[in-house]
Write a structure and sequence with these properties.
The chain is an alpha/beta fold. The protein has helices at residues 3-25, 30-52, 84-87, 150-159, 169-177, 192-204, 237-248, and strands at 57-60, 74-82, 96-103, 106-114, 119-122, 140-144, 162-166, 183-191, 208-210, 225-232. The protein has a 5-stranded mixed sheet with strand order 1-2-3-4-5, with helices on both faces. The longest helix is centred in the N-terminal third of the chain and has 23 residues, at 3-25.
Length: 251
Amino acid sequence: MTGDDHALARDLAGQAGRRLTGLRAQGGDPDVLRKAGDRLSHEFLVAALAARRPGDVVLSEEGADNPARLGARRVWIVDPLDGTREFGEPGRTDWAVHVALWEDGDLTAGAVALPAQGMVLSTAEPPPGPPPDAAPPEIRIVVSRSRPPGFVRNISDLLSAELVPLGSAGAKVAAVICGEVDAYVHGGGFYEWDTAAPVAVARAAGLHASRIDGSALAYNQPDLLMPDILVCRPALAGILLQAIREVTNAP
């Protein structure tokens, strides 16, 4: 991994986002728009990575899984359009483009473009992130607007936390990075491309990122399904992990 990988992730996420913004501005049937957005961004990212990093493997939500990735040293994990539902809803800004690089066992570079917000967060210029110390007086937890897990509501009750619904995992993690909320907790499953780039940027910003039992997040696995995630301000990690244990009756 080189500094160029950080810049490449940032640039490709931004360029894909601009293409999606242009497509969205044309309007049309929401379902047709969503499918066209997935296809447009996927084709752009795959072609660009093939040209710029021809020796690397690409894992994309919109492409077939290449088994060669399991023996590769470098794998780009991309979600061409995270928050497809929100992309098709006029006025919504909580959709994203994810581009991440996994290398030799861990995430090493990543970028999350939020095109409707005019923003790209990346490991090329890591965001400052929230203050590392004191916990806030009231915890704000961002959750899925379409399928918030029940145990997060129980955490909210236990900690008197505010729940903030948003689409797109990338938009949720970006809200934590930018200090708009304090944590993102999700269970119920998603896939590696949903979180790889957001986690790479969150770590670069100094945030805590783990499974909800505190164990490490692993990428480029044979099974691409990821059960759960916790991204939060470092000062809240212990509080939230303990609350999760209590509400899920985990040992």
